[in-house]
Specification:
Structural class: alpha+beta
Distance between the termini: 22 Å
Radius of gyration: 15 Å
Strand content: 15-25%
Shape: elongated
Order of helices and strands: EEEEHHHH
Low-confidence stretches: 1-5
Mean pLDDT: 80
Largest sheet: 4 strands, mixed
Number of helices: 4
Strand order of the largest sheet: 1-2-4-3
Length: 94
């Protein structure tokens, strides 16, 4: 479980989601987004140390797009529906 990682970068604007903190973490192996009401973009420490400014920008834009599309809420809804209707093959598709 990832808990409040240290934030080493400034906040970025995520379309319609306000500002989002960009944080580094040792708990993950790939960039991710966590949080429903206060989202954060997490970047692994080992990857952050190797990225150029352009690469970091592309990762942040990619993860911010997940927030813009509200993928976090869509995934939550899918998991709730799967719990309610476990034999529905349409819900098992990821």
């Amino acid at each position: 479980m990832v808990t409040a990682p240290p934030c080493r970068l400034t906040r970025v604007a995520a379309w319609g989601r306000g500002t989002v903190e960009i944080c580094t973490t040792t708990s993950l192996q790939r960039p991710s987004v966590i949080g429903f009401t206060k989202p954060r973009i997490l970047i692994p420490d080992w990857l952050f140390a190797r990225l150029t400014a352009g690469e970091l920008e592309q990762i942040v834009l990619h993860e911010a797009e997940h927030l813009r599309r509200r993928d976090d809420w869509t995934n939550l809804l899918q998991k709730i529906c799967l719990a309610l209707f476990p034999l529905n093959p349409g819900l098992v598709w990821n």
